[in-house]
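Table S2 (continued). Query chain:
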Amino acid sequence: MTWVIDASHSMITFSVRHMMISKVRGRFSRFDGTVNFDEQNPVNSSVHVTIDAASIDTRDERRDGHLTSPDFLDVANYPTITFASKRLEVIDDSHGRIIGDLTIRGVTREVALEVAYNGQSKSPWGTLSAGFSASTKINRKDWGLTWNVALETGGVLVGEEVTIDIEIEIVKQVPQEEPVAA
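Corresponding output:
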């Protein structure tokens, strides 16, 4: 059954070390996707997400401008970041792993998302939603995001490891009945 991401109740965030001493956090404010969620056999499910790379928001316009430039995401040439699942692994009733292809700047690499299933709930409007939390860590250099500056005190300005945290609410799509021909 097809479910769609409810972006107004979902969030894709990231964090990365800054100057080796703190973390900068950000999010992507525009994304969409579909989940073919097989409730009876979750390993048969699939996920596809598209993120508007220009929607990056770290609460600093200058930094966001640098992150969308050719030094990092190069949104003029690579406007989207995508994730497409390849397989799912069930760990227990509420935990699993989604292995899939993450594409950033035209470079595709396999990543594994550690996923928690948070359950389902019916809204006051009759729709059925399911919630998931997921996380992973990537090395940004694996996607060609290599810009950096050496610090006078040692180390670098921007850490290589990026932590990605995802909170997703999906809404079950009800199949439309075909009109009966007269």
